[in-house]
């Protein structure tokens, strides 16, 4: 029997027959030898009758797997007898759990996996490499879209959101940054343990770990809402740091005004000592290379872009990768919103500039389904942003931004589609968004610039 695929853009990832509701990860990592040992406990709900569960786990070996009825986080549900595990086996970066009988829809199970190995990125022909990667002195995890299996067994599909607890023990002197809130930090001998909890649902590709010799950098202000915002980094030029992040709190203010309250408990930025080609998105934090600690527009727009993903991509997440414009188009348009609000070119001026760039490129990309090869093509970002600008021009600022605030409020924690957005936009603005935006979304020719 072939192994399941949950999303055509990521063949060989994800099992639609079940969902993970909570991940509890206890990991130990030796920085010097790149050795990871872990125990992952997954609270699973069966969505379709099945006699097997297929997890994603790449480059790491499972030594022990246990299956129990009920959820580990719900002691009362564990009194029932459940299916037994016949065997487990590794196949093509997957961990296949064969059960002794069919399991009915709605069944709750706990899966515990003990595993270890030397983690490294997962490389695919279409999407390149992603996942756990060694830095000069530390670790970066860039999981989008297929890298999560390089450090924990998971159901790697964007529509399967779960809560997380991560305990990671590392060599003393290294700091661990991860999603959510720091619940505990202890030092014992030559090691330190960092415990992070992400209580809001999160897609697997947004789960991250950043390990380095980091310290706190003080920001010059705080958001008006009081949302905690912080930056951790190694040694940086102080002037360059302030040029890059000195207005981070203002950026939060602008986005809260336009998109609604910040959707999580805090926001952090990690700056690696290594240069990075692009910054990295993950839930509640963003990661930048030291080469991006600058105050010019090309760096500033990326700081705005990654922050905006907390609303568009992390709180409200696509159901299928073909709708990637719902993340990248929205975050790109947020760059233009910040430009306008901070005294730079208006969103209309930015839109005109980037429209000119699209005119010089091939018109063969379908925004609602660009294909795996083009899902991160720059045209997805810019055409997606221009799609939003076309709607804004049509309905006016008041209705447009009220619609965006309602989009985040109504769909936070959910997985959405383009059709969901069009229905929402139509309801909130009174304009038939499906008709208005069809040329931008469903046709390859570049529509006229929205006036």
UniProtKB/TrEMBL annotation:
One of its GO terms (molecular function) is alanyl aminopeptidase activity. Its EC number is 3.4.11.2. Its cofactor is Zn(2+). It catalyses: Release of an N-terminal amino acid, Xaa-|-Yaa- from a peptide, amide or arylamide. Xaa is preferably Ala, but may be most amino acids including Pro (slow action). When a terminal hydrophobic residue is followed by a prolyl residue, the two may be released as an intact Xaa-Pro dipeptide. Residues 21-206 form the Aminopeptidase N-like N-terminal domain. Pfam families: Peptidase_M1, Peptidase_M1_N. It comes from the Bacteria. The keyword Metal-binding applies. InterPro entries: Aminopeptidase_N-like_N, Aminopeptidase_N-like_N_sf, Peptidase_M1, Peptidase_M1_aminopeptidases, Peptidase_M1_dom, Peptidase_M4/M1_CTD_sf. It is an enzyme of class 3 (hydrolase). GO terms for biological process: proteolysis. Residues 247-440 form the Peptidase M1 membrane alanine aminopeptidase domain. Keywords: Hydrolase, Metal-binding, Metalloprotease, Protease, Zinc. The keyword Glycosyltransferase does not apply. Belongs to the peptidase M1 family. This is Aminopeptidase N. It comes from Nocardioides bruguierae.
């Amino acid at each position: 029997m072939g192994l399941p695929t949950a999303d055509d853009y990521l063949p060989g990832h994800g099992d639609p027959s079940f969902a993970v509701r909570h991940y509890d990860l206890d990991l130990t990592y030796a920085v010097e030898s790149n050795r990871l040992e872990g125990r992952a406990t997954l609270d699973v709900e069966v969505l379709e009758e099945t006699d097997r569960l297929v997890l994603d786990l790449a480059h790491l070996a499972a030594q022990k797997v246990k299956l129990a009825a009920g959820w580990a986080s719900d002691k009362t549900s564990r009194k029932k007898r459940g299916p037994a595990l016949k065997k487990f086996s590794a196949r093509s970066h997957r961990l296949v759990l064969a059960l002794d009988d069919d399991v009915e829809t709605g069944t709750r199970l706990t899966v515990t996996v003990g595993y270890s190995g030397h983690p490294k990125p997962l490389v695919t022909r279409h999407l390149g490499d992603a996942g756990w990667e060694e830095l000069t002195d530390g670790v970066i995890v860039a999981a989008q879209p297929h890298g999560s299996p390089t450090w924990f067994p998971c159901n790697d599909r964007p529509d399967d959101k779960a809560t997380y607890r991560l305990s990671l023990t590392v060599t003393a002197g290294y700091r661990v940054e991860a999603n959510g809130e720091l619940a505990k930090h202890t030092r014992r001998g030559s090691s330190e343990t960092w415990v992070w909890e992400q209580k809001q649902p999160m897609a697997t590709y947004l789960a991250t770990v950043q390990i380095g010799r980091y310290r706190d950098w003080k920001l010059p202000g705080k958001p008006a809402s009081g949302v905690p915002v912080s930056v951790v980094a190694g040694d940086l030029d102080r002037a360059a740091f302030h040029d890059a992040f000195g207005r981070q709190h203002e950026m939060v203010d602008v986005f809260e005004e336009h998109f609604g309250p910040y959707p999580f408990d805090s926001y952090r930025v990690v700056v690696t000592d290594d240069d990075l080609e692009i910054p990295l998105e993950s839930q509640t934090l963003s990661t930048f290379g030291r080469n991006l600690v600058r105050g010019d527009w090309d760096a500033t727009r990326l700081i705005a872009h990654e922050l905006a993903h907390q609303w568009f991509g992390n709180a409200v997440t696509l159901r299928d990768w073909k709708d990637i414009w719902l993340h990248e188009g929205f975050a790109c348009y947020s760059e233009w919103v910040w430009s306008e609000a901070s005294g730079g070119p208006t969103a209309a001026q930015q839109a005109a500039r980037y429209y000119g760039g699209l005119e010089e490129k091939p018109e063969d990309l379908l925004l609602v389904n660009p294909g795996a090869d083009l899902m991160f093509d720059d045209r997805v970002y810019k055409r997606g942003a221009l799609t939003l600008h076309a709607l804004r021009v049509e309905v006016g600022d008041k209705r447009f931004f009220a619609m965006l605030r309602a989009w985040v409020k109504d769909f936070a924690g959910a997985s959405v589609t383009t059709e969901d957005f069009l229905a929402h936009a139509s309801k909130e603005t009174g304009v038939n968004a499906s008709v208005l935006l069809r040329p931008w979304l469903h046709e390859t020719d570049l529509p006229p610039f929205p006036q």
